[in-house]
Amino acid sequence: MQPAKRGEGAESFVQTLWTVHEGEKPLFATAVHAGHDLRDELARLIAIDEATRLREEDPYTDYLATVAPTRLVPHRSRFEVDLNRARDEAVYLGPEDAWGLKVWKASLPEAVIQRSLAEYDAYYAELEHLLTSLEMRYGRFIIFDIHSYNHRRAGPDAPPADPAHNPDVNVGTGSMDRQRWAPVVDRFIADLRRFDCQGRHLDVRENVKFKGRHFARWVHAHYPESACVLSLEFKKIFMDEWTGAVDPDCLECLYEALKSTLPGISEEMARL
Predict the structure, then answer these.
(1) Residue 132 confidence (pLDDT) above 80
(2) Beta-sheet pairing, 70-74 with 18-21
(3) Distance between CA 23 and CA 223 in Å, rounded?
(4) d(Cα 34, Cα 61) in Å, to the nearest integer?
(5) How far apart are the C-alpha atoms of 206 and 169, rounded to whole Å?
(6) How many domains is the chain partitioned into structurally?
(7) d(CA 259, CA 198)
(8) How many CB atoms lie within 10 A of CB 182?
(9) Checking phi first, is residue 198 left (phi over 0); if not, alpha (psi -120 to 50) or beta?
(10) Is 117 part of a structural domain of the chain?
(11) Which residue segment(s) compose the domain that 103 sits in?
């Protein structure tokens, strides 16, 4: 497979959409819900306040993505276009698409929807370009599909959700050939659990809350022999999900925990 060609004028278009960095080693990361920006036309139409929007986004996951030498991190909010949903579901139109939230003051004009979908298409074209380059250089590669999730939805003063059903890190592997990639996945989980994070070991479990969604499915469908996507959902223990305030020490600990898994991933990849 040859890398996808970027369209004419694409460089200036995408500079406002994401940050891309290409490095060495067969490791890629993205954080598709890290962005918070909105196009001006959408900022005028949105009905929810900024704090609510931020609570449903994945702030600081862009920092976790820097653990990978090659990465593609969008700047735009999931409320503009959700890159982890199928194309026909990527623009939230009603409350049923967005956790019961009334997102827009009025129905979105078709032209506005199409401009958001153009961003969706541009992201997946860029993704294909980067992943095909990794495939050509290394044959096989690992992807960290990084997200975060709320665990205090009952309110800022209410008890957090039951830890029995809400691990610190949920590793989604639902769309991969689990048997094929078992040595990598099992080693990753074991190494992440082993790391001492502020005096304790992280609760890391597989497919408890999330199994991975469209991004992982798309990659595994397009690169069935070469790509292993680990869809990582970090519980928002590193921030206050209601105020948006970050705990920098905890965030740094999670970064170091993720970084600690890289030698083991390299070892297991070499044995495949």
Answers:
(1) yes
(2) antiparallel
(3) 20
(4) 6
(5) 8
(6) 1
(7) 15
(8) 13
(9) left
(10) yes
(11) 10-178+205-237
